[in-house]
Amino acid sequence: MKGLYFQKSSTNEEITFVFQERENLPITEDNYVKLQVKACALSQINTKLLAEMKMEKEFFPVGREIAGIVLDVGNKVSFFQPDDEVVGILPLDSEDPGLCEVVRVHEHYLVHKPEKVTWTEAAGTIRDGVRAYTALHYLSHLSSGKSVLIMDGASALGMIAIQLAHHRGAKVISTAGSLEDKQCLERLRPSLARVIDVSNGKAHVAESCLEETGGLGVDIVLDAGVRLYSKDDEPAVKLQLLPHKHDIITLLGVGGHWVTTEENLQLDPPDSHCLFLKGATVAFLNDEVWNLSNVQQGKYLSTYLKGCDGEVVKWCF
């Protein structure tokens, strides 16, 4: 049985992908589940994080978001039984690649797949679904009546976050990086309160949000990255599509929550003072947060995803 792995060159400049023959899986015991893979999503491999976590090795398994059928369970498994349809995310230290026929995984990294969700949809949305739910539920405590700014709403993360926010009864504002993205967002139902087209670099996100909220500012911001420096120090593409950190602080309302994906966010003393006066908070959305905690390990996560039948389905880790 073969699996797909990636290998970094000695200079760390080149990555190659190789198929390797895998040994037979060990006997399924304790809390482990043997799973026949039906679909696997390909997401970016964060080599920088692997280096920081001291998890680098010669060959690293490829494909972590998987969906499939349970073949066998260990004697301590309590959530699953053979023939169950499941979906999950393999941990960073998994020895098994998702791109193979059969994997062995701890039950806490899996959840039952809703019947009306296809294998491909399940594997393709589970990661961004968990990210969106973590951002809106755990990091910003979204509730009915709140106003939310979701940057780059036509992205996978943005689209799921918009649906979750609408499901909670929030007022949603979003940005679009192209005419196609703008048209896509304008076709959504329920409708967005406002779609801000930033593709030409002329739209003022802060002014648009303050106008939409009557000058109060938005309660929650989920960004897709921000500009940290002046125009002379930023790449042209980043200048055009991303708001400056000062714009985010300006449009944030009193008691607001800023959830950022910018891992190198730098706040100067005046920025911190402005956030202090507003009683606002800043939270970091780490893609791997559910895999970096040995205590949590996926148990606390619940994800609401949009099913293909139009109903909102609840997936509980």
Structural write-up:
The protein is an alpha/beta fold and 317 residues long. 26% of the residues lie in helices and 29% in strands. The protein contains 9 helices and 16 strands. The strands form 4 sheets. Strands 11-10-9-12-13-14 form a 6-stranded parallel β-sheet, sandwiched between helices. A hairpin with a 5-residue loop joins β15 (302-306) and β16. The longest helix has 20 residues, at 119-138. It is globular, with a radius of gyration of 21 Å. Residues 293-317 have low confidence and may be disordered. This is Quinone oxidoreductase-like protein 1 isoform X3. Pfam families: ADH_N.
Main β sheet profile: 6 strands, parallel
Strand proportion: 25-35%
SS-based structural class?
alpha/beta
| Total strand segments | 16
- How is the largest sheet built, in terms of strand order? 11-10-9-12-13-14
**Mean pLDDT level:** 82
- This entry's quaternary arrangement is single chain
* SSE string: EEEHEEEEEHEHEHEHEHHEHEHEE
The general outline is globular
Number of helices: 9
Radius of gyration: 21 Å
Ranges where pLDDT stays below 50 over 5 or more residues in a row are 293-317
State the end-to-end distance: 29 Å
Helical fraction: 25-40%
